[in-house]
Design brief:
Elements: H1 5-18, E1 32-37, E2 40-46, H2 55-63, E3 71-76, H3 88-94, E4 99-104, H4 114-120, E5 124-126, H5 133-137, H6 140-148, E6 152-159, E7 164-166, H7 178-188, E8 193-197, H8 198-204, E9 221-225, H9 236-239, E10 246-250, H10 256-264, E11 268-271, E12 274-275, E13 278-279, H11 281-290, E14 295-298, H12 302-310, E15 316-321, E16 331-332, E17 346-355, E18 358-365, H13 366-371
Parallel strand pairs: 3-4, 4-5, 6-14, 6-15, 8-9, 8-14, 9-10, 10-11
Antiparallel strand pairs: 1-2, 1-3, 7-16, 12-13, 15-18, 17-18
The structure holds NADP nicotinamide-adenine-dinucleotide phosphate (NAP).
Length: 372
């Protein structure tokens, strides 16, 4: 349904509250709720902790005794099922809410139907919003995994103005400043796993942990695609105190000795088949799903990024643009260097965000966007 300007404004505020659950509630959805009476906000809340009270309940609590006759704006249709907490639709009824406006429908049969239940009880229910994409954008992994039962994959790259991700092949090239790096760690905290290619693991020797004082509920599994299992057992990945598991995907090309060496330093090693002589990326993601990994944050390098995007396995692109050029000898992120993400079938979402001198641009896959 199309919404009035005022309804839309409050609903967008509810969606921004939802985002505060990042890193604390997945694989459950991030949800935000605002309560208004006579056009004034009387309460608001969001789903703060996995297993904790839902957004509607937190909003009702914050409103005290002013909920009777209120309008509730919820980014996601209120639930109607008894899970770890009682259904939100019942809580809204008990609180005497007269009107409910929601952004996206609750996907899946098991949990849906809160809107219908409220309407049957005499509450005016408005939703889902016509521009449902806006409400999916806040928590796309939740909607994607409910629909497809395969991991949601986001690709993050730091690129120069001329689209390069490193000054030369085999060279570590820090491109972004501290503010952008902190945002990368915040993004990591909202995913079940962080993935890099074997060459990146070798050249950059990253830790792939969440730092900057952030506290994710799920420590992202650190995944390396290392087809021949040539990663050094002395790599920093294995030398941290971090309890985040290390998972190596190798192929039959890896010798038993190399696989054992990596297992000895604490890695879980999964052997995936090859397709056209390369590691089968679809199979890798299928294995991730089987291991309970619902969302993956890939941080390069260029060859892995290119292969994943070419096979249409990436749903979201986070591009941090650093204000420098690296020249033609630099390593390309993906595409030819001149092509923009739009040329490659990506659709820009939200406003670009400045982090210190760097600019974050976000894109979703055109195909996913048009499906809504
Ligand atoms: N600026 C940034 O955001 C950023 C991020 C990460 C890395 N980097 C830089 O990027 C450089 C490393 O990147 P890179 O491109 O050389 O390597 P990479 O992407 O890190 O590693 C390549 C990996 O992808 C696999 N691969 C390549 N094509 C594939 C395909 N079609 N199907 C399946 N698997 C495939 C390779 O397997 P095979 O072994 O079979 O070839 C290899 O395991 C370093 O200089 C690093 O500093 C920059």
């Amino acid at each position: 349904v199309s919404l009035s300007e005022l309804d839309r404004e409050w609903l967008l505020h509810a969606a921004s509250l939802a985002g505060r659950g990042w890193g604390r509630v997945h694989p459950n959805p991030m949800v935000g709720c605002v309560l208004t009476r006579d056009g004034e906000r009387v309460g608001e809340g969001w789903h703060e902790e996995y297993g904790g009270p839902h957004a509607e309940v937190n909003a009702i609590r914050s409103a005290g005794d002013t909920t009777r006759g209120a309008t509730a704006y919820v980014s996601l249709e209120p639930c109607s099922h008894h899970g770890q907490t009682p259904p939100c639709s019942e809580s809204l009824l008990k609180a005497g809410v007269a009107r409910v406006v929601f952004g996206a429908s609750e996907p899946g049969d098991e949990t849906g139907g809160g809107g219908e239940l409220l309407a049957q009880a005499g509450v005016e229910v408005v939703g889902p919003a016509t521009d449902v994409r806006t409400f999916h954008e806040v928590d796309p992994a939740f909607f994607y995994t409910t629909r497809y039962q395969r991991p949601y994959l986001a690709l993050k790259l730091a690129v120069s103005l001329d689209g390069r991700i490193a000054a030369r092949a085999g060279e570590r090239t820090p491109l972004t400043d501290d503010d952008a790096n902190r945002e990368v760690h915040r993004l990591r905290s909202g995913f079940d796993a962080v993935l890099v290619g074997g060459e990146t693991a070798r050249v950059d020797d990253p830790l792939l942990t969440v730092r900057y004082g952030l506290d994710p509920r799920i420590l992202p599994t650190r995944i390396v695609l290392d087809p021949s299992a040539v990663l050094s057992p002395d790599a920093s990945l294995f030398s941290t105190d971090s309890e985040a598991p290390v998972l190596i995907f190798a192929t039959e090309a890896a010798s038993v000795e190399r696989v054992e060496t990596l297992k000895d330093v604490g890695a879980q090693v999964e052997i995936v088949p090859q397709a056209d002589g390369r590691a089968d990326l679809k199979e890798m993601l299928k294995r991730c799903w089987g291991l309970g990994i619902r969302s993956v944050f890939c941080e390069g390098g260029g060859r892995l990024a290119t292969a994943l995007t070419r096979e249409e396995l990436v749903q979201r692109l986070y591009l941090f643009k650093a204000p420098l050029t690296l020249g033609p000898q630099g390593v390309l992120g993906f595409g030819s260097g001149d092509s923009t993400p739009e040329d490659l079938g990506w659709s820009s979402i939200g406003e670009p965000t400045q982090f210190g001198p760097d600019l974050l641009l976000k894109y979703d896959r055109e195909a996913d966007v048009s499906r809504g």
